[in-house]
Amino acid sequence: MHDWWFLIIATVTGFLAAWGVFQLTERRRRKAAQAVMRRAVVTELSHAELVLSCIIFNLSIGTDNPADAVRELKGLLEIGTERVRRAGVLDLTTEQLDALRHLQGVADPGAAEILRTFAPALHARPLRVQVPVLDYLVANPAPEFRDVELQALTAIRWQMHLLADEARLADAWLPLAGTTGVADDRSRAVTSLNGTQESYRRRAMRTVQMIRDVLPDLKGARGPRQQAARIRRVRRRQGPPRAPAS
In this structure, is residue 61 part of a structural domain? Predict the structure, then answer.
């Protein structure tokens, strides 16, 4: 009789121990997967911020918006020329970028006047920035992301899609603006291209600020209350939605 009780107790104990080990292992696996997803989103958004910052600089230099170029240039210099060079978007050589390092110690108005004298970037144009991890996360919300984080990331994803629409539109206008056909047609194409580039530039600046607002929260650098307040500001930056261009 005692042997039966011992066998039952041993079986139940073994089952509970195995179940506990399984739950602990599963919990560790989920936490590891959650950490990987969060790091992937942070890495992708950091790269998108870098690329968009380079594009903003390209579209602002040699124009009537040198202050925007100064702001992005100083941020790019803090990131480092090697990482900026690897992005392959900035319309400056490594030597030119290093030569502009002295602007870090110049007040923004003075630096803006210096950049105003620069010729417009030769290869300045809107670009489509791919964010596949963000697309997947928004389509398949992960439980490790809080609702306010997902709302902010959804707003950023929407802006990225609108930027892609404007980049495609600019690509359509670019060949027409460079033709030597009818003067009126070329003039309309140039006007449309310039308008599309300016719209892209302004939206890119808003999107970059949204990314910069949310990144510290995704990295856990702020407390929950600070995160919620900051992310609400990200959503407000989104502005009214519009239908994507066909």
Answer: yes
Distances in whole angstroms, Cα of residue 176 to Cα of each of 1, 186, 194:
94, 6, 12
Question: Residue 67 belongs to what domain range?
Answer: 2-237
> In whole angstroms, how far apart are CA 187 and each of 114, 120, 174?
30, 19, 12
- pLDDT in 10s for each residue of the chain, 246 residues: 556 666 666 666 766 666 666 556 656 555 655 678 889 999 999 999 999 999 999 898 878 888 898 889 888 888 887 888 888 888 877 787 887 887 877 788 888 887 877 777 667 889 999 999 999 999 988 888 888 899 999 999 999 999 999 999 999 888 877 765 666 777 888 888 889 999 999 999 999 999 999 999 888 755 555 555 555 555 555 554 444 443
Q: How many domains are there within the chain?
A: 1
